[in-house]
Amino acid sequence: GAVVSQHPSRVICKSGTSVKIECRSLDFQATTMFWYRQFPKQSLMLMATSNEGSKATYEQGVEKDKFLINHASLTLSTLTVTSAHPEDSSFYICSAPDPKSTDTQYFGPGTRLTVL
Amino acid sequence: RKEVEQDPGPFNVPEGATVAFNCTYSNSASQSFFWYRQDCRKEPKLLMSVYSSGNEDGRFTAQLNRASQYISLLIRDSKLSDSATYLCASFRGYQAGTALIFGKGTTLSVSS
């Protein structure tokens, strides 16, 4: 079946550095991908919609200059957390809709970010 | 009001128990609803889609009540392996393929 991968699965960085997370659709094309963030014991909160070839759409309260999204190809979206702070430590998950089955969305395995 | 609201629990039940989760949604135009299961530190996995007529898959039954704008998930004969967080979700927009909006999740702990 279709698979969405994320890299890295886990990253620890120092405060003030930038971290890039990749989300790839492995055997289908995704013109749209979604980025979620999940804090401990919280739900998945939609951060932004990544659109291939155009600007991402951010949810209210999500800083677009801090969370840079680039959807450079039909199989890759990247999320860059710039100038990371400890409060950015979270579980970041991407998803992509199945182009053949409108009710289906494939989730990546997630990236656990820890900012020291 | 949040788009999808869910009682976070936790629900602590013994093996063999029947447990029900409910979720309410605010967008009356929403067409598609889902129950996802999420294990600790993992991505959510689709458990069931929820149809107006209700649907059943083994020990799991999902129902949709459009008039009251809520969906439910019933788990019968709980197993230890059912311990997880269950999230309800619906599409943000009217069409499938838009972003999924999740409830807060309900934590289930099944003990022997």
Structure description:
With 116 residues, chain A is mainly β. Helix content of chain A is 0%, strand content 52%. Chain A has strands spanning 4-7, 10-13, 19-25, 32-38, 45-51, 57-58, 67-73, 76-81, 90-97, 105-107, 111-115. In chain A, strands 2, 4, 5, 6, 9, 10 and 11 form a seven-stranded mixed sheet that branches. A four-stranded antiparallel sheet of chain A has the order 1-3-8-7, with no helix packed on it. In chain A, a hairpin with a 5-residue loop joins strand 5 (45-51) and strand 6 (57-58). Chain B has 112 residues and is mainly beta. Chain B is built from no helices and eleven strands. In chain B, the strands form two sheets. In chain B, strands 2, 4, 5, 9, 10 and 11 form a six-stranded mixed sheet that branches. The mean pLDDT of chain B is 90. The chains are: A mainly beta (116), B mainly beta (112). The interface between A and B is medium-sized, with 21 and 23 residues.
> Which class of secondary structure composition applies to the elements of chain B?
mainly beta
Seen as an oligomer or otherwise, the chain set is: heterodimer
Number of helices, counting only DSSP H or I runs of 4 residues or more of chain B: 0
| Overall mean pLDDT of chain A | 93
Q: Write down the Rg of chain B.
A: 13 Å
Largest sheet of chain B: 6 strands, mixed
Helix- and strand-based class of chain A?
A: mainly beta
Described by strand count, sense and barrel closure, the largest sheet of chain A is: 7 strands, mixed
Give the end-to-end Cα distance of chain A, rounded to a whole number of Å.
37 Å
